[in-house]
Amino acid sequence: MIDLAAEHKLPKVSHELPLTPMIDVVFLLIIFFVSIQFKRLAGELEAHLPKTPGVVNRILPEDELIDNHIWVKVAPPEAWQPKVVVDPKTGREKLAGRPQAVIITVNSQPISDFDGLQYELISKKFQLEADGKKPLVILELDPRLTFQNVVSAINAAKKAKFAHISFTPPAGVPQE
Questions:
Q1: Which residues, at least 6 apart from 82, have a Cβ–Cβ distance to it below 8 Å?
Q2: Is residue 97 one of the residues assigned to a domain?
């Protein structure tokens, strides 16, 4: 027979976890994520386009376009002037207003938008690869472009899966 009284005589082992250290860690994580300012960190990213001519700038896009080069020019309209305001929270200058309009050309042919740029780059890449050439994209980005438009141009080339992307300053930019 089973002795039920024998079960009650065994010492009970506690299976509880100490919660105090876990609660301390949770509070430290909460304090960390509440106090960090993600928007401020993202706004401090600075990027500058090249202003001095490079080796690629010696190639004239309209006249002496090398066989495997795809020349992409992105610039705001000539009349575009940025509207700069001061952010009251950070005290830094930022652009305000509508998104910046851009003029995009691929090998001197106008393109409507960045999606059209991606499609045109894929098409040109396919043509060059069919001819046995390694395509190179040269991005001529105006220094007046907003960072968003610079990133959009680079993303269009990356989404078109180009292995070689080069940058050159615009022809009309004064040399420093």
A1: 95, 100, 144, 146
A2: yes
User: Are 96 and 85 contacting, i.e. CB atoms less than 8 angstroms apart?
Assistant: yes
- Which bin fits 173, alpha (ψ -120 to 50), beta or left (φ > 0)? beta
The answer to the question of residue 42 being in a domain is no
With respect to residue 7, please indicate whether it lies within any of the assigned structural domains. Answer: no
Domain with 111 in it: 56-168
Count of structural domains, the chain: 1
Per-residue pLDDT tens digits for 60-114: 444 445 567 888 888 888 776 667 778 788 888 776 666 678 888 888 888 888 8
pTM, two decimals, is 0.56
CA distance 64 to 70: 12
- Looking at residue 170, what DSSP letter applies? -
CA distances from 5 to 8, 13, 23, 26 (A): 5, 18, 39, 44
